[in-house]
Design a protein that fits this description.
This protein has a single domain (about 5-85), classed as 2-Layer Sandwich (Alpha-Beta Plaits). It contains 3 helices and 4 strands. It has helices at about 20-35, 50-70, 90; strands at about 5-15, 40, 45-50, 70-80. The protein has a 4-stranded antiparallel beta sheet. A hairpin with a 4-residue loop joins strand 2 and strand 3. Helix 1 packs antiparallel against helix 2 (about 50-70). The longest helix has 18 residues, at about 50-70.
Length: about 100
């Protein structure tokens, strides 16, 4: 895998859970915070910045914690990758 940094927008949607849905989402955001990757929590998703390996390892952990706390989940992912590093700042600098 490439060592370039990518951006991934991650949205976890617990479908069938005994716990409150937000509790499951909070656990996923906790994993993201512990990952050491640059991230931004947004109203509908959380965006992370890291290498492909780091991001996909994090996604696997999010899937695991989601399924430990819910019987079924959906994870929506948007990736921005290039033949160079991709940073949040380049998308937000004009604002």
């Amino acid at each position: 895998m490439s060592t370039y940094k990518i951006n991934a927008a991650i949205q976890l949607l617990p479908i069938d859970t005994e716990q409150k849905r937000w509790d499951v989402v909070d656990k996923a955001i906790g994993l993201i915070a512990q990952s050491g990757l640059n991230y931004k929590v947004c109203p509908f998703e959380t965006v992370v910045e890291g290498t492909s390996t780091e991001v996909f390892e994090l996604l696997e952990k999010i899937k695991q914690v989601g399924l430990q706390n819910s019987n079924e989940i959906l994870i929506n992912i948007k990736l921005h990758a290039a033949n160079r590093d991709v940073f949040f700042e380049e998308k937000l600098e004009k604002y």
